[in-house]
Specification:
Elements (H helix, E strand, L loop, with lengths): L22 H6 L2 H30 L3 H8 L3 H8 L7 H12 L1 H8 L1
């Protein structure tokens, strides 16, 4: 194996290790900017959950009504999940994961 020696200039920004922060920028960030970013992150997470729930239901070939009857939740809950108004939590999230990984076995167990 061939070895190469390198000297890295720490003043070059492009070579700054990933994960380093700009302390000046962090210090000048306001609470309003933090709240705005948190809201944007939460909205993105809700949309991801909505796409996930919709994808699973469509992969199973079920309507919202059929899906709600099969998993034992109200149609309104399914609609809220798929519109990003609510996010499946706890047992519902676990059930969606199982339905995603082993749909036939999951649906058979739910019957």
């Amino acid at each position: 194996m061939k070895k190469h020696r390198m000297t890295i200039d720490p003043h070059l920004v492009s070579l700054t290790p990933v994960g380093r922060i700009d302390p000046d920028r962090v210090d000048t960030t306001t609470e309003i900017e933090i709240a705005r970013q948190k809201a944007a992150d939460d909205k993105g997470a809700m949309q991801d959950a909505a796409r996930y729930a919709r994808r699973i239901r469509k992969r199973l070939g079920l309507t919202q009504t059929e899906f709600s009857l099969r998993i034992g939740v109200s149609v309104d809950t399914i609609r809220n999940w798929e519109q990003g108004k609510r996010c499946p939590t706890g047992a519902a999230r676990s059930l969606l994961k199982v339905l995603d990984k082993a749909p036939e076995a999951s649906l058979a167990a739910l019957d």
